[in-house]
Amino acid sequence: MSKHMFRRACAALLCLCVGAGVIGLSGCGSEVKTYAVSDIAYVDDWLSNSESYGEVSTYNIQTVFGSDTMKVQRIHVSEGDEVKKGDRLISYDTSLTQIELDKKELEVMELELALRQAEQELKTVNSYKPMVVTTIVPDVSASDLVGTEVSGFAQIGGSGERDDPFIFVVEDGKIPCSDTFFNGICPPGSDDVWVVFQERNENMTNGVILEHWGIRYRTSVSGMYMSFFDSSEFSVNKPTEPYEEIEFNSGLTAAEISRLRDAAKKRIEEADLEYRVAELEYKQMQLEVDSGVITAELDGVVEFVTGDIDLACENYDPLLKVSDDGGYVVQGTLSELELGTVTVGQTVKVTSWEHYAEYEAQITDIATVPAAQNGWTNGNTNVSYYPFTVYIDGSADLMENEFVSVTYNSKGNLDSGFYIERAFVLDEDGRSYVFVQTEDGTVEKRRIVTGEYLWGNYVRIVSGLTVEDRIAFPYDKEAKDGAVAIEATIDELYAY
Question: What residues contact 40, with CB distance under 8 A and at least 6 apart?
């Protein structure tokens, strides 16, 4: 049993024991143990977080990143310098870059091919038609359903013609050979008669066909002649119960095709992302090869210059940054279901896939018209999505056109809340209380506001308690206002 499950089981047991009035954890005198709320809390951020993706656009800022293909010869500016658009910032040797550029170009071509293959795969999946299962109700007569037992032989159909032979069910597979039978199927004037004999299960006229024979009878002045023919087409078991007829088409159900389509779309997203990132890197390297000089793209102030060029190139860190009170902008998309809770001014988290860094940002705009496409999102594909814009200040180290993820709380800026084990909440007269450790080292009985339950033994804390607090087990006989708090670990309570 995992530690988390053990704790939940113990908490439930404590609640039951307390309800029966048979347990009490005692302290020594007026001392009571307290436990960190963070150790017994379940924070539900993950339940309310959504994620979108987008490209970075720069706003009045230029950041030059180092790379392992760049051999910097000189940085021409210092921090605090004012520069004009076109001023030289960095000079570097391009000999190594050309070799790497050729490799990167090949990588871009391979990734583009992979993207096209993924798109073709989706086209193929979209052409699939699901197999259709149809229930057929046979058109059967009353005799087909009831049937009669055969003694000797019994005719059940046919006219004796080649396309409509007589159909006889014969007892135990014995074909009749009497003159009476021959005279019956070959009356005067009949010189060519076709007959199918069938042996059926339990000799019932509606039984399953076990064996069958086709015999052609021809008469002449010299006598009667017999020959065999294939009677398979006249001896097919006729269903009497409803059955399913399957039109296979692709051989896949609609649900299976839908899953294949979702998987193909996911592969396209991943392939497209890899291709676009590689293409961005290729363009950056191409700029390095073309000139050997990086110039200012705007009028501004040099806000940062690295103190270790080699380390910056090795780690792909910024070499310098020029800004005119600038920053970065990213556009993501959010679900129509989140329009009422996600608001302008809300704080979000932006994660750089290039440098694995996280930055705080703010939503500056939410569109009122849905996007033509859902963009990059991990949300519900069956609803409309609306573009929103976030702003990251200039202290972040982001590149023009790089891809980032934007994580936001779909419940808005409100505290997403947390849950604690119900065993730590004292219920009295319809109100909820906890014993909280105060700054002076004692505990106090504090009223809190609770919400819904989670998994039966966790309760949501709406107000009155934070995850930074420490609380006592409320059913300890020493838990009372003014008791001295003795800080303990949660392991001590559950005795791991």
Answer: 7, 420, 421, 424, 490
Reported as a single tens digit per residue, the pLDDT across 264-322 is 888 888 888 888 888 877 877 776 666 678 889 899 999 999 999 989 888 888 999 99
- Please report, for residues 116, 307, 353, 404, the alpha-carbon distance to residue 273 in angstroms, rounded to integers and kept in the order given: 13, 33, 11, 11
Amino acid at residue number 138: P
Q: How many domains does the chain have?
A: 3
Q: Which residues contact 391 (CB under 8 A, 6 or more apart)?
A: 59, 327, 328, 329, 361, 362, 364
Domain range for 60 is 47-94+292-409
The answer as to whether 473 is a domain residue is yes
The residue whose two tokens read 């009749």 is: 176
**Residue 421, token pair as written in the block:** 């084990």
> In the structure, what pLDDT confidence band is assigned to residue 94 with cuts at 50, 70 and 90?
low
The answer to pTM > 0.70 is no
Give tens-digit pLDDT for 349-408. 999 887 778 899 999 999 988 877 655 555 555 678 899 999 999 999 998 888 898 988
C-beta atoms surrounding 483 within 10 Å: 23
E strand or H helix that includes residue 326:
strand 318-335
Q: Which two tokens stand for residue 257?
A: 């095709």
What region, left, alpha or beta, does residue 172 occupy, with left being phi > 0 and alpha being psi -120 to 50 degrees? Answer: left
